[in-house]
Amino acid sequence: MPSRHRVAICASHPIQYLAPWFAQLAQDPRIDLTVLYGSLDGQTRAATDRDFGQAVRWDVDLLSGYRFVELPSHSLRPGLDRFFGVASLALFRLLRREHFDAVVILGWNYALYPLALLAALSSGTPVILRGDSVRYVDADDVDADSEGLARARLWLKTWTLRRYIGQCAATLAVSSGNARLLRHYGVPDDKIFFAPYAVDSERFRLTDSKYCESRRKIRAELGISDEVPLLLFCGKLSAVKAPSLLLSAYARLRASGLRASLAFCGDGALRAALQARVEREAISDVHFLGFRNQAELPSLYAAADALVIPSVREAFAMVVPEAMLAGLPVVASDRVGCVEDLVRDGETGLCFPSGNEDRLLACLTMLCDPQRGLALRRKLGDAARERMKSWTYVQTTEGLLAALEAIDRRCYGAVRAQRKPWLG
Q: What is the pTM (predicted TM-score) of this model?
């Protein structure tokens, strides 16, 4: 088996949570890495994000520290906001020429990925699948009363994904819910390798002086004194993220007499309605920060006292590990994909059933209690930071290597099985 694996990772575009991992992989002596990008939108040029309602260009470097190739686009309408917006037929020639030991594809949400799967299969290159979609513990695919069309769509999706994923030599599970989904689509346990969806820990662990400076500056800008708990929502202001539920619970919290402040970091279709409601109901100390780029997030986490993620459903929610690295307690619904692994109720954060405003209010009340809230926030925040010590790019890399080695063993065993006994 090779001592160094030649690996290609096929990615739709530079992603802020993956680029630091690519840079670390490039330094690993066991891996020879090439990243194949279908587009450089979001880094070298702004990319339209429908949910944010604006063009976004990340303000952190996502292309340094590793070798990458920008594939020529063969999309009729290029763009990150549509399935056929990222596609390249150049994969077929490239994979035949380069003879990689394996190709990693990042899901199925762009045409680029099934094209990469077909190109790899045609060149005899093993494929490893990595995505972040989840299946919840109590998942119910379709109601008994669902219309025939919904049932037909579900059947078609299941049939398609079973065959799509079934062509892969191995899969990388980024969470427990993700592993559950892979099993649901027929992947056996010996082809599932745990590789957590981690973030760049160095960016979110501020020095004591930088933490104090950031906290003081941002809270002064918002007019919030240090003893008032600041609750932070960080994400797109869309219905699936449930910012309206959080605003309702917060309004009841303030009506009960507890002091607190709420900041919405992000933009989206619901912003105008949320602001109008704040003005109409005279809800105190609510701040709309708008879209904030990556470089600003560590300072925002330093200024906050808790991160609240009330989503109706969420594949993973990368802001959760970011906040936990910063030492923030997290309040999250049970429909946030990473909660099962990271947010242990009462230990590293607080959890509530999705859509349950009363339970969300109870969580906020505990954190903002004038007598016990500060101690609870510190306890949960310290435990959150400790939890993240075993959820890093190191574990992600080890999962990838385990998958590569399993593929090598399988291929080597297949070759041996085809040999004549007298040839050894």
A: 0.90
Mean pLDDT along residues 299-322 = 95
* Predicted confidence (pLDDT) per residue in 350-371, tens digit: 999 999 999 999 999 999 999 9
Task: Give me the chain's average pLDDT, please.
Answer: 91
**How distant is the alpha carbon of residue 408 from its chain centre?**
29
